[in-house]
Amino acid sequence: MVSRPVLCVILSVLPFIMFGQMWKEKDKHYHYGAGVVVSAITYEYVYRKTDNKTKSLIYSLGSAVLVGTLKELVDANQKGNRFDNRDLLATTYGGLTVGFTFTLFRKNKRRKQNW
User: Fold this and answer.
1) Which of 11, 20, 68, 92 has the fewest Cβ atoms surrounding its Cβ within 10 A?
2) Dist CA 115 CA 92 (whole Å)
3) Number of domains in the chain
4) For residue range 101-111, what is the model confidence (pLDDT) as tens digits?
5) CB-CB neighbours of 76 under 10 Å
6) DSSP of the chain, one letter per residue?
7) Which is it for the CA torsion 50, 55, 60, 66, positive or negative?
8) For 102, how many CA atoms within 13 A lie in the half-sphere containing its CB?
9) Full residue range of the structural domain in which residue 100 is found
10) What is the tens place of the pLDDT at every residue in 31-42?
11) Are 26 and 5 in contact (CB under 8 A)?
């Protein structure tokens, strides 16, 4: 069994290893950062409302993909621009990194049961 810190490092480094060529473009760094920010905010908000790590992970990943898609749709409507799948991929990787990191390191809280 792989420990949590090792798994976190693997998940964090995996996008850079698999798509190293993509990271040469400065634009992709901004998309990755946007995915991190959106996913972190969404994860924290959903977790505080539900105390459910799985639901928080799904919503945070979904929000990163949604924001990335909307941004690329706006880009596609601009003259001389197009929908860039690699920009969307970079935004999604930002969401994946934060979502899985928060899920791995979040302590499980036990709610008090009111009888």
Assistant:
1) 20
2) 42
3) 1
4) 888 887 766 55
5) 11
6) ---HHHHHHHHHHHHHHHTGGGGGSHHHHHHHHHHHHHHHHHHHHHHHHH--HHHHHHHHHHHHHHHHHHHHHHHHTSTT----HHHHHHHHHHHHHHHHHHHHHPPPPPPPPP-
7) negative
8) 29
9) 4-105
10) 888 999 999 999
11) no
